[in-house]
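Why Glycosyltransferase family 2 protein? Reviewers of the renewal asked for a concrete example.
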Amino acid sequence: MRLTIITAVRDEAHNLVDWIAHHRALGATDFLIFTNDCADGTEALLDALAPAGVTHIHNEIPEGRTPQWSALKQARAHPLLKDADWVAVLDCDEYVNLRSPLNSFAGLIAACDADAIVLPWRLFGHSGHARRSDLSPLRAYTKAIPEDALYPALARFFKTLYRPAAFREPGVHRPKARKGDSPRWSNGSGQPLPPDFRAQQQRIMLWGAPMATDLVQLNHYSLRSAEDFIIKRSRGLPNHTDKEVGLTYWVERNFNSVEDKTILRHADATEAEATRLRALPQVADIEAIARTHHARRFETLLKNPDLARLYGRLILAENSVPPPESLARELVRIYAAAQTKGES
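Here is what the prediction returned.
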């Protein structure tokens, strides 16, 4: 079985080895990775990782398009997508977390009678890390939002593992179906999703229903440490280049309410694979240079008074707390009503 992961990155050389290693350990065979405007050695690192199934493409971004959507448009016609049995579009801060006893993508697929499997997000906070940790994300970031939290609604977003033969093209959160087709979808517990979900192709969250993660959840380390966040802010987002990465972004994602170490059952396999990747020619050296690059970049950014102030505020905002269910539902209702009124 060939399983391809597609992503678009910029200046992520200090994060990519762990991420690729984790998903290779679960059975991913190919990585189609698009880059743009890198200054930290990301492109050289990806080229050095070619023996590990990594295909690196420089992302030519048309005016008015975002890096991620440009990458997906190019991916549609790429041979890796055509040859893949299964595909996932993931960011390099998203780590698939299979539930026991599953240890591979093949096991997850076998447990779900579906053409597409929802990978439900779980938001992980900075876990108290002001500065970047030397540990892998699996070990460094173990504090998360409560599984049943309803607010913010983005806590119920998902990504998708899917059969490309059953869909027209990839999307950021879910693939696009062909007109008239009705591919089979399952949730993260292997249960079929209803026809209305299949028909609503713009739907990218499962809000209001109980979390279904008996088989899989997607650990989303969107912040990492406060240091990492300042670097992320300077880099920008791959799919919303106009969106500010500031205190609001942090507060909506920095949940350290409960401990979730379930992904650590994969840690030994992930770290063994990371060791193999770092043994490839140039990989460890490029990664080390990238870490130094980002450490120096952080120190430079802190010379800006506004960023120094933001860094302090990130530390002060050490833990967001989701509201109780009744208030969460009311907040979502208010926002939905305001959005509808604004669009009318």
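The longest strand covers residues 116-123. This is the kind of structural detail the renewal will allow us to pursue systematically.
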